[in-house]
Design goal:
Elements lengths: L2 H4 L46 H14 L6 H17 L6 H26 L7 H18 L4 H26 L3 H20 L4 E3 L5 H7 L1 E2 L2 H28 L7 H23 L7 E2 H19 L1 H11 L1 H6 L4 H27 L1 E3 L7 H11 L13 H18 L4 H28 L4
Antiparallel strand pairs: 1-4, 2-3
Helix pairs in contact: 3-16, 4-11, 4-14, 4-15, 4-16, 5-6, 5-7, 5-14, 6-7, 6-14, 8-14, 9-10, 11-12, 12-14, 15-16, 15-17, 16-17
Length: about 450
């Protein structure tokens, strides 16, 4: 037999081998690796649920529930239960006038709660927001009414006053090292004194008729096109954001939402937005779209963009999750903390103008009482963790809707204010308990 028959020549397309490769037997030769080939990216299997349709999302939902990642589910379920109970007790609870009242009374404290959400994301607390709200209202009233300064300019100075006060609190906390609790507690006392001093001998300064501050909660867009137009803008903007996000993910080679899911999500938002617009416009007694609601939604959208879509927002979550790790990663922790407290102070002063609008003017006691507790409760009830690093800006809206819906419903039933406080306190405690249990469950599942 010829040598060729004993040792046949390998086919041209057979892979090259190396008999001396380590770890191989005398008869086993590994294929040569093509080093020029691009590495295959490793994709988190959890991201693939988007490509599995409803079954994938259901599996992911069950996984999150087992792992304690409840998100906004408890508060959404709570809102539905509250609406059903009060509607059964009083058939006018979901009327246009009732919903408009909820929207208007939610706006001022809700804007303040947005600032508290940022502070809670750091794992800190701001006890001064009530006093800063009173300061903002006092500054506006003295400048605009007493000294007859331009309406818009006095509003701007009032809001900037809150920003400066918040930045000062942040400086003492971040640079000097005074605990945020102590700094803002001192601010709560100190700025209340300044507020009283600014008001002078006047017990209150009434809001001028037709002023910017009066219109904050007193103006309604009676034209039907305003509410429906806002709903249409919200629907289009939401769909566009989903499509843009899907496009960016495909460009980066990551799993993206299928078109069917985008359509389904958009339809849900369209039903909610369209239904709200109809309620504000069409039924008897409807006054139209409240300006207060428009401004509150604008603050929410801007704050949500900052928190989720900017470098600064990601730094806030990083600092709240682990400040030392964030510092070692190159994040300027002091800068982040100062800016967050400045945001809280600015939104507190802005919210104070809404309170002045509702109460008919600035007073020495504006921002006192249960204002601070209601604002913090709204952020926590909405789903923002007291332990830092977890939460959403929209928590402010959800939490305030819960609180104000309870108050509106109890008022319509003729319940005393002490009953309202007891129920709100119980809801707040339940929210904190759920948050604590959720964190414990996540730790057990190795996801905290």
């Amino acid at each position: 037999m010829s040598d060729l028959a004993k040792n046949p020549k390998p086919a041209a397309d057979a892979p090259a081998t190396d008999a001396s490769a380590p770890g191989t037997g005398s008869g086993t030769v590994p294929a040569q690796v093509d080093k020029s080939a691009a590495p295959v990216p490793v994709v988190d299997p959890r991201l693939l649920v988007r490509e599995e349709g409803l079954a994938g999302y259901w599996t992911e939902f069950k996984r999150k529930m087992r792992g304690g990642e409840l998100g906004s589910l408890p508060v959404v379920v709570g809102l539905i239960v509250i609406a059903i109970i009060f509607q059964l007790k009083n058939e006018h609870f979901l009327d246009a006038s009732s919903l408009a009242n909820i929207a208007v009374f939610t706006s001022g404290l809700g804007i303040m709660a947005v600032g508290i959400v940022f502070v809670l994301l750091l794992g800190e607390i701001d006890l001064s927001v009530g006093s800063v709200a009173g300061m903002g209202a006092a500054v506006w009233a003295v400048l605009n009414v007493t000294h007859e300064m331009n309406d818009w300019l006095s509003v701007l100075i009032a809001v900037l006053t809150g920003l400066v006060i918040g930045a000062l609190h942040g400086f003492f906390f971040a640079k000097i090292g005074v605990p945020a609790f102590v700094v803002t507690l001192a601010g709560f006392l100190g700025w209340s004194g300044v507020q009283i001093w600014l008001m002078g001998g006047e017990g209150s300064i009434n809001t001028p008729e037709g002023s910017v501050v009066e219109n904050l909660t007193g103006h309604f867009f009676a034209e039907k096109g305003a509410a429906y137009g806002l709903a249409a803008v919200a629907i289009v903007a939401y769909a566009a954001s989903l499509l843009l996000d899907s496009k960016r993910r495909r460009s980066a080679g990551l799993p993206s939402r299928p078109v069917s899911e985008i359509v389904l999500r958009t339809v849900v938002v369209a039903v909610l937005a369209g239904g709200a617009a109809y309620e504000l416009n069409e039924p008897d007694g409807a006054r139209g779209l409240p300006l207060a609601l428009v401004l509150f939604l604008a603050v929410l959208v801007i704050a949500d963009f900052v928190a989720r879509r900017t470098t600064f927002g990601r730094q806030v979550f990083a600092v709240g999750g682990n400040a030392e790790a964030a510092r070692r990663a190159g994040i300027n922790v002091d800068r982040v903390r100062i800016i967050v407290f400045a945001i809280s102070g600015m939104l507190a002063a802005f919210g104070g103008l809404f309170i002045a609008s509702l109460s008919g003017g600035a007073t020495k006691s504006l921002g006192g009482g249960n204002t601070l507790m209601m604002v913090i409760a709204a952020a926590v009830i909405g789903g923002t963790s007291l332990f830092g690093g977890r939460g959403k800006v929209w928590s402010a809206l959800l939490g305030m809707l819960v609180i104000q819906s309870i108050q509106q419903g109890l008022n319509m039933l003729g319940m005393a204010s002490e009953i309202q406080f007891m129920i709100t306190g119980a809801v707040l405690l339940a929210a904190v308990v759920i948050d604590s249990i959720s964190r414990r469950t996540q730790k057990s599942a190795g996801r905290a």
